[in-house]
Amino acid sequence: MEPFKSHRGIVATLDRANVDTDQIIPKQFLKSIKRTGFGESLFFDWRYGDDGKPNPDFELNHPQFAGASILVTRNNFGCGSSREHAVWAVAQYGFRAVIAPWQDRNGTRVPGFADIFRNNCVKNGLLTIELAEPEVEEIFQMVDRFKGLQATVDLDEQRVVLHLDEEIAFHFDIDPVVKDHLIRGLDDIALTLEHESDITAFEQRHDTQLHR
Amino acid sequence: MAAKTLFEKIWDKHVVQTMPDGTRLLYIDRHLVHEVTSPQAFEGLRMAGRPVRRPDLSFATMDHNVPTTSEDRMTIRDPISAAQVEALRKNCKEFGINLYDLQSDHQGIVHIIGPEMGITVPGLTIVCGDSHTSTHGAFGTLAFGIGTSEVEHVLATQTLRQSRPKTFKVEFTGRLGPGVTSKDMILKLIGQIGTAGGTGYVIEYCGEAVRALSMEARMTICNMSIEGGARAGMIAPDDTTFEYISAEDRPFAPKGKDFEKAVEYWRSLPSDPDAAFDRTLTIKADEIAPQVTWGTNPGMVVDVAGRVPAPGEVPGHSVRDVEQALAYMGLTPGTPMTDIKLDTVFIGSCTNARIEDFRKIASIIKGRKKADSVRVIVVPGSQQVRKQAEAEGIDRVFKEAGAEWRHAGCSMCLGMNPDQLKPGERCASTSNRNFEGRQGKGGRTHLVSPEMAAAALIEGHFVDIRNWS
Ligand code: SF4
Fold first, then answer.
1. DSSP class of residue B64?
2. Which of B45, B74, B98, B430 can bridge B352 by disulfide, Cβ–Cβ 3.0-4.6 Å?
3. Which residues form ligand 1's pocket by a CB distance below 6 Å?
4. For residue A212, is pLDDT > 60?
């Protein structure tokens, strides 16, 4: 997996909450047995009209978002189905990072991304960043005001910087395990297999039938 | 010893070791596999020259792509679907994995056949490349959905690296009223906490109303944990669980002395009385009404006696979210839910297509006819459910009511197969997701319990089952 340190690119916005993985990549594209070719079908039902032509009303089709590589969206992105195809589609479209707000609901912090989606992102080197709601709102407004706005997401420094005349920067928190994983571009399976003898030893004392 | 929750007992027993980065290497006892989320994982193994570590702990079937009519079932016409199903056959053969293929008596939706065959028993860790793996938590297992990269990881190592989730206790006090089901309990909960309310947690459902539920009804609750954001939902095993497992026809369940020993262990699993949870919530079961979703996620839900809400009236959703949902659903605020007319009623999915669901529906519709305006599709969760229903004459009740009686598969739950809604079609569905386009592009889904679907198919619109005869 390609290591992730820092990335600069155009910011695109998608002003929707609870975007589920059925929207990110609709079911008909899950029939593929390959791991590539999903970028063209990202947000298919929103992105294309019934005639198969790009839907001009859909945000990602707006000309100022051409070539965008940082996606900013609303809360609970990637909910629903576990399909990793959704992450493949987002990454293969060209996004390197997705930003969504965490929320406060009756005093509990509700994460900005669904669990399985976030996990799948880590496996594919796609960075998910959670910011506070007002911060995400500010990015939305800046992107709306300054067409073609670019940002840098710096994983090492845990910062998002908007490249305006006067730069705006946001700090983000991230699970240190995830950070390390992305920065080093680790291959999980190879790492785990280094512990194969431990797994074998465990299997000798663990009864998978649990009839005890 | 410190008091432990059900989750902690299972988790602790499965930690192979703590990794240098602080995550835990967790041993996986059962890995369920289906055709959609596995081909890239097998391909990864092949490319790296890695074998499947424990083919004996993996179980595969095909469910998502499978046509459900007798004519089409064995010859899948869509060449891409056919290739995906064929890839599973080839992979299972090459890597030595048990496959319940289309001609098998045990083929069906992966989350239905696991419990049915006794693959799912208390105390296990179970994963599958499918978010509704949470279903198996009804037996007191730690069961959760994973992505394809993790599927490959489990195939290669029989483990997963995991950070420990937080625990969330949801207690349902009191008893459900007549006509109210476990589907209504879980929809009520999701309406309350939102579709991300459980993100980062494992939920344990408990309380009098949960204890009173059958295994089938418990599976419905755990199944939809993921719709509340929780990767896993669990219910402590008890006599109801053991009785279900001891039924005949569960080839993988322990028998005789093994069973007795297992039960002894399983009785040690429930959360200790003073075990601490990271979060708790209590819901009064006797106050729950039958639920119907009106929007495009399962948290957009109201009591059947309620009305379609207006933007600004829905906690946890912005005005814009609600406007988008109402526009997609073609609904006007203020409309009584019972005025909503239906085109299709879908009875199926891993949420509600077990024999008990079918028995209940049959008892409601027996001797009656469906409304002329609706199409009714009934899809058993497994070929076993189909066989059992036919033995009990339930198929005849459905057919006489004018419903289509199908073979096992995911069918219209996600429309990856020929069963789909047409644009604008409105459907009462016993499944778990009312996302845009889930049942077919432009299709409009309302999630309900099997009982509510039964009443709706007779009347052609939603009815409050509590005062309907
Ligand atoms: S029935 Fe629906 S939710 Fe269940 S496994 Fe199949 S597609 Fe997924």
1. S
2. B430
3. B 63-64, 109, 111, 130, 132, 349-350, 410, 413-414, 431-432
4. no
Query: A81 C-alpha vs ligand 1 centroid, how far in Å?
Result: 9
Question: Which residue in B has a C-alpha nearest to residue A81's C-alpha?
Answer: B131
Pairwise CA distance, residues B267 & B263, whole Å: 6
Instruction: Supply the pTM of this predicted model.
Output: 0.96
Q: So what's the pLDDT on residue B1?
A: 72
Residues of A in contact with B148 (CB under 8 A): 84-85, 120
pLDDT in tens, B180-230: 999 999 999 999 999 999 999 999 999 999 999 999 999 999 999 999 999
Interface with chain A: mutation pick from B150, B189, B246, highest number of A CBs within 10 Å:
B150
Sketch the domain layout of chain A as residue ranges: 6-205
Using the predicted structure, report yes or no on whether residue A211 has a pLDDT greater than 70: no
Rounded CA-CA distance B223/B433 in Å is: 11
Instruction: Looking at the complex, report in whole angstroms how far the Cα of residue B31 sits from the nearest Cα belonging to chain A.
Output: 12
Say whether domain A6-205 belongs to CATH 3.20.19.10.
Answer: yes
**Chain A (37-96) residues lying within 8 Å, Cβ to Cβ, of chain B:** 45, 74-76, 79-85, 87
Closest CA in chain A for residue B264: A212
A200–chain B Cβ distance below 8 A for any pair: no
At residue B382, what are phi and psi to the nearest 5 degrees?
-150, 165
CA atoms of A19 and A133, how far apart (whole Å): 16
Write out residues in chain B with pLDDT < 70, as ranges: none
CB A36 within 8 A of CB A95: no
Residues 6+ apart with CB under 8 A from B42: B87, B91, B94, B95, B152, B155
**What is the per-residue pLDDT across B386-408, written as a single tens digit (0 to 9) for each?**
999 999 999 999 999 999 999 99
Strand boundaries in B85-239, DSSP class E: 98-100, 125-128, 142-145, 159-162, 166-173, 201-206, 232-234
Among residues B192, B203, B262, B194, which one has the least CA distance to residue B228? B194
CA of A7 to the centre of ligand 1 (A): 37
What would the pLDDT profile of B349-397 be if each residue is shown by its tens digit?
Answer: 999 999 999 999 999 999 999 999 999 999 999 999 999 999 999 999 9
Burial of A97 (0-12, 13-18, 19+ CB in 10 A): buried
> Shortest CB distance from B16 goes to which of A87, A103, A198?
A198
